[in-house]
Design goal:
The protein is mostly helical and 66 residues long. The chain has a domain of 45 residues. Helices cover 70% and strands 0% of the residues. It is built from two helices and no strands. α1 runs antiparallel to α2. The two termini are 33 Å apart. The mean pLDDT is 88. Keywords: Membrane, Transmembrane, Transmembrane helix.
């Protein structure tokens, strides 16, 4: 069985964690809170897996020629 959605979800979750906890604080000038990053990274990874599962491609149904 193809598990590409797992890889996609983990990459998406890690990317979002970095953007939200490192990118935005550096852009705002507030500084990075590494404790917050360490706590929210598993949460982002879980939501990334959910996102990857929901957005996985399904086999298209055969269209009936009319």
């Amino acid at each position: 069985m193809n598990k590409s959605w797992v890889k996609f979800g983990l990459i998406w979750g890690a990317f979002m964690a970095v953007v939200m906890n490192v990118g935005f604080p550096l852009f705002d000038g507030t500084g990075v809170n590494w404790t917050k990053f360490a706590v929210t990274l598993p949460v982002w990874l879980i939501f990334g897996l959910i996102f990857g599962y929901v957005s996985r491609k399904k086999n298209p149904k055969k269209q009936i020629d009319q």
